[in-house]
Structures are given as structure tokens and as C-alpha cells.
Design a protein that fits this description.
The chain is an alpha+beta fold. The chain has 14 helices and twelve strands. The strands form three sheets. A six-stranded antiparallel β-sheet has the order 4-5-6-7-3-8, sandwiched between helices.
Length: 504
Amino acid sequence: MMSLLSVPTTSALPSSQLIPASHPAVTRILCRLTRPSLLSLVLDWLDERNQETSGPYLLSSDDEDDEQDFYPPASSLAALREIYTDLQARKGSKRDVVDRILEGDWRDGISLYQLAMADMQYLYDHPASQKWTALKIVRLSSEYIAPNDKEHPSIPRFHPATFLRNLQREALPDVKAHYNLDRHPTLPLLILRVFILESPYNTGLALHSAKERTTFDASKTFYVAFPDFSPYIFVSLAATSSSTLGSVSSSADNKSLRKLILEGIPKAFSKPRDRFKLEGTSLSAKNLDVLVERRGGGRMNAVGGGWGVYAEDEKKESDNPLNVQLPTPESSILEDDQEDKDSAEKSGMKRKRVEDPSVVKRKKLVAKGRFGKSAKADDGKGIERLDVRLEDHFPIVPALANYNVEAEEGTEPARKDKKHKGRRSTITLELDRTEDEDELADDGWRPDIRITFHGQHVFAGIRELIEAGIVDGEKMPGWMTGEEGISVGVVKDGRIRGNKGSGL
């Protein structure tokens, strides 16, 4: 029953707080799931361990059967489980299942925990529904010494209950949040779902304000993933809502509340004399698999592209790059190419046809050497967008060198006074963030060139271009293989600036 009195409190929203079954957000969240996923979710609600937060409406011994009830209540959990198990075995419509849930077995309301489970199920069914960005947890002091050998100096200790309690302590008194932690079914990470409510109360009355339609807006829910044994976290980017009247200011408020919660994450990890902060990693993607591979606790964080062979646990004798003997397949191909080249010169042909099997085989070999076992179309680890700004010198033709010197004597570079009109995108801001005083150095002109690769799997597409002979795999720069592990970067002198061992 809903409380008639609300008192301001600093505690979080309880998981057992009920939302009326007639609330439009409840129907919207449940209808997003497919019928098999919805039935599987209901069986999880009926588990004995979840009865405190997702208990159904059951017929008690004092109640009498209502003959006019279209969905008569079950007498026990076992009977209700049997009903939904039978629904799984036969075909039917999803709407019938939703109606039975809202008008029958959970007619009193759906708890916040149940809505959180429904959102998590949708996330697992649609992995690309959220776009994630990787952030690194960094200590403010580099002189920290681990108290024991079991604690890694670069990985903070993560205890879920303590972390959530500290995170709630950092929230504003007039902001309430509901937290739900869940283990990913296939990936080694924990996912925290955060629902934000702008209210000093944590009762049911706070969820039925005048802004009932925007109470459960998608922008008020975001996710934070914690990979195992890794100093990184993955945060879902803010969802964009429809630009209706009054939604612009509401979306801005939601982003501000979300920013406050994110600022509390490093504080929740911190403890006396051991403080943390968050740093960007220039890696964003809709695919959690690629984030876990590039920023997880495995061995692939710094060995992208063809360097991944060094991180493999079991290396074949022929695939070991440290092997002093040249592998047979590569040597045979090189010998065949030299023989074909000599025969082509004797026959008067300048070069072999692209359709030649040996040419195709060599291009695939070059692509394998540059990418290794990564960047395959069916590996499920694709990055959808790669934004790069080039800061390389413009090549100067010797014949025009004197002309360029005379033209530059009376000309001042205008790029530094360049002003951007209108609103700048997030990617533009990220690329311009690394721009400093050396961009207009006296060693030459660096044109502002920006390249965007877009697709379902950017690096797999580049690999296919190499195999098709469109891109020269031997002269292609390394950042086009994905070995840098970023989605936004600045290229200077052919290398990603300020990343890993570039020295720039």
C-alpha cells in the first residue's frame, strides 16, 4: 500500500517500491521484450529468492474465488510457475502474457526491482541498444604502495555493497536513485543499472508527481559496467529523447543529474589517503565484447591487430613470431611469387592479373599479417565508428619550395584564429582537445584533415579492402588495423598521438 506521508531522506529508492500496473512506463518496458524473454523473466520473478521484491498476487485462504475475474489468482507459487511453464511450451501472443501480468498475477503493481530486471533483459537481448565509453580509474597519487601482495596498485578494490553505499552518500539530498547490480551472462563483468529520480522522497508518492510521463524517461536510466580485474569502467552514453515541447530542459536536467552520479563513482572507490579519478580512453562502441577485449582484464589490451599473436596462450609452432625458422606456407608463397614474377617478365607481362590465385592468396596473407586473428566480420567485436584527425606535414614539391617560402613570408597562419560557429559535436570537441601550440610550428604546414570510418565493423571492412586489393596492406598505417584500441584519435607523423609507445 502506498504511504500517505512522505518524509525527506538520504536513502536510495527501495527495490520493493511498487509502481501501479496501469502506469504507461510499465507497459512500455514489458512490451519491449519478446515473448520468450518475457516468460523467462517472469519465471525469475517467481523464484523463491526474489519473493521479497517481486512477489505475485496469490489467493489466500480467506479470499473467495471471483467468477468474473478473467485471470483468477493462483493458490501457490508452484501452481503459478506451472502456468507460465505451460505458456512457454505453446504458442501465443505477447500481448496476452503482458495482460496476464498486469491485470492478473501482479495486479497490485510492479516493483522497481522487476522493472530493473526487465531493462537488463532487454539489454542482453539487444547488445547494441546502448553506446558505451571506456573510462580509466586512476589514482591521484602515484606514490601509493599496496599494503599487501594480493592488492594490485592500479586496480581499486571493488566491494559491491560498500561501493553502492558510498555512491549513495555522494548523491544530492534532493536526488534519489535506484541501483541494481547484475552479472552479465556471458562476459566477465558486473553491470550496474542506475535510475535517477529528482525528488527528496523515496516513497511511492515521489513516483507519481505531476511529471508522470517523464518519471521513467529513458534519459534517467544509465548503466555502468565493471569488468573483472581491470582498472576500467564502461559507462553508457546519455540516451537522446524526442525533442518535444519542454523536453529540451528536462533532458538537460537529466544529463546534469547523470553527471553528478558519474562524478561520485571515483569518490565511491576512494578511501582515506587513497583517492581516485576518471580519465578518458578515446574508446567508444556499442559492442561490449570489444570493450572487454580492449579494456578488460585479459591480455589483449595492448596487443591489437597483428600483435595479438604475442598474447595467445597456446601458440602453434608455425605461428610463433619468435620462431627462428621461416614457416613453410609463407616461404612457399614468396618463392611462388618470385617464380611468377620471373615468368611474367619473360612473357612480356608487366604485372599479374588481380584474379590470379597467387595474387589473391598473397593479399590475404598480408591482411593476416597486419590484423592477425582480429577484424573478422563474424567475430562480434566490431567498432561502428572511427574518427581520426591528421596532423601530418603537407608534402612539399621541391620545384615549388621557393614559391612556398615567398608566399609564407607575408602570410600569417589563420588557423589559430579560426572560430567555430554553431554547436560543436562531441567528437569534434574530443579531437580539438589535443590541439595545442605546436600545431602551427615552423617546420611546415599541417592541414586540418578529418576522416571518419563508419560501418557495422570498421576494421573488418578495412581488412576486406586489403584482401580485395583496394588498400595497400603493406603501406597502410598501423592505426588503421585497430592496434591502438581507440575510436577517436589524432595522427601525427603517422602514429596516434599520445597513445601507448608513440612518444608524441
